[in-house]
Fold this sequence. Notes:
The protein is mainly alpha-helical and 110 residues long. It has 2 domains: 1-70, no CATH class; 77-110, no CATH class. The chain has 5 helices and no strands. Helix 1 crosses helix 2. The termini are far apart.
Amino acid sequence: MTALAPFAPTPAEMYIEASRQRYGVLTDDFLKIYPVQTDDDVRAAYFASMRDLLIGWGVRSWARADIATGKSKVYSYYFTQTPPGLDSQQFGAFHSAEFAYVFGNLPMPH
């Protein structure tokens, strides 16, 4: 789905065609999990699929491998808090958004 620009409006037809090119015979299964009905659905479906592919699958695979071969405990978390800010509704709880909470340096509201 690299043809999709995640921050630009994308027609649903383009999302579906890019999905077909990437997933082939598994496209229908993919679209059941990350469906789009209208152009407005594309952004959320795209981000959810990329979240699961890049973060969810990768991190879980790494954690399982570390559990099997490592000597230390493995911890994971699922962060859902949307930080305050001008673009908070656009980006939601994005990767690394937890840093401001962990280090206690949230931006102060103006």
